[in-house]
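### Sample
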Amino acid sequence: MERLDENTMPNKSMNELLVEIGSWFMGTPYVEKTLELPGAERLVVNLIGLDCTTYLETVLALARVAKQGNLGMVSYEKELERIRYRDGILGEYPSRLHYFTDWIYQNEQKGLVKDITQSIGGQPYENKPTFMSSKPKLYAQLSRLDYVEALAKAEQAIGSRSYFYIPKSDIHRYESQIKSGDMIAITTTIPNLDVVHVGFALEKGGRIHLMHASLNSREVEISEKPLQDYLMGNKSQSGIMVCRAVDLD
């Protein structure tokens, strides 16, 4: 938090802040399941070990407090809770936004982000995730039937909405409309999942790359390959959704 400058940070755009703050975490270790802790759901604050989603949420929360000039851990934790949970309220385990397409929808409803995928040329994305409710044994917290039922209800809501994506073979056609700092969600051909990876767009040498917490390299990095080439190397990654942080007045 000491790196946030209350005098200069509010003058930068949200995208500029996301790029700058995101870069501070270069080399931070990739750590899985930092939110999947035993006991009651609680707000996990971890700046030293991140997966792709917690990296994105951490950077977005820090950027929002920097933009507002409300520097301090209390403000950061409030923003993180607002981003991470349904309706911005920490409740029980199902209140967390476990599916990233639900995360996009919810945070657009909160006025924090804008899903720009359709407007830049995206096409309809078939999105009927059922992974969590169909595989409860993979999650210790889903030993409770009421939690499984709540997740199934959330999955049904996701499946009732319209989503769009840009197929990976078409990304080069729309790169000029993607800005550094835009949030990238990677879609999948796996039928019961919605999104398999997330990160931030970063323009480098005239191409869009991905700034992300990488499972392969086990740390936060900028992809060596442009985003399209990065996806083309993975058969189960089908394309991208693009979200843009809403600038605060």
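The mean pLDDT is 95. This sample (DUF1460 domain-containing protein) is used throughout the tutorial notebook.
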